[in-house]
Amino acid sequence: MKKYLVEFIGTFFLVFTVGAAVRSGAALAPVAIGSILMVMIFAGGHISGGHFNPAVTLAVWLRGKCDAKDVVPYWIAQLLAGLVAALLVVAIFAKPALAALHPTWASLVVEFLFTFALAWVVLNSATAKGTAGNSFYGLAIGFTVLAGAVSVGGVSGGAFNPAVGLGVFIMGLANLHQLGVYLVAELLGGAVAAMAFKATHEVGE
């Protein structure tokens, strides 16, 4: 239960920060989002691995560093956290949000690419033998999200995370179609990152 609670807490603050930063119109929203992910990974990574993202959990499981019995509980904790965070944002920012319209194919491409990049960085910085015991993995992962949010946030909304996708849908910042785009592109990005990792590393690395 400790691992699942940590996954809930980290994902909650990530999704809440996304919603609050966007709804308040913060100019440095991408910095806030990348930073909260970084600090939550540093805070909880030693307990749960600091996934805070169903696509990352999928990648880590396919890579062989997450027990199969933990995958669904991690997903439940992450998605529940996203839901709770989104409802709190809705309650705080009472004025209804306007869902952004994003191009489908462009969204699919950029969400896939940056979820791949995120999972690739997680696998290489936090699960690989060559980087074991490092102190930079949270920074590397947080800055990957920051880079994605700055570069393609205007294209797709910059979720790179099904829990964030669910959250922004509940907040009214994305429509149901875009939620489907997020789920497909992000889970595929995580799975392909795991395959790429296994193709570029020897067994046990």
Tell me briefly what this model is.
This protein is mainly α. The protein has helices at residues 2-23, 29-48, 54-63, 68-92, 104-126, 137-156, 162-171, 176-200.
Overview of the structural elements:
It is a single chain. The protein has 205 residues and is mainly α. The protein has a single domain, classed as Glycerol uptake facilitator protein, CATH 1.20.1080. 76% of the residues lie in helices and 0% in strands. It is built from eight helices and no strands. It has helices spanning 2-23, 29-48, 54-63, 68-92, 104-126, 137-156, 162-171, 176-200. The two termini are 29 Å apart.
Q: Top keywords for this entry?
A:
76% helix; single chain; 205 residues; mainly alpha; Glycerol uptake facilitator protein; globular
Q: Please state the CA-atom Rg, rounded to the nearest Å.
A: 16 Å
CATH superfamily caption: Glycerol uptake facilitator protein
Following the backbone from N to C, one meets helices and strands in this order, namely HHHHHHHH
- The name of the CATH architecture is Up-down Bundle
How much is the average pLDDT? 95
Distance between the termini: 29 Å
Number of domain modules? 1
Largest sheet: none
Q: Please give the oligomerization state of what you see.
A: single chain
Based on secondary structure, the structural category is mainly alpha
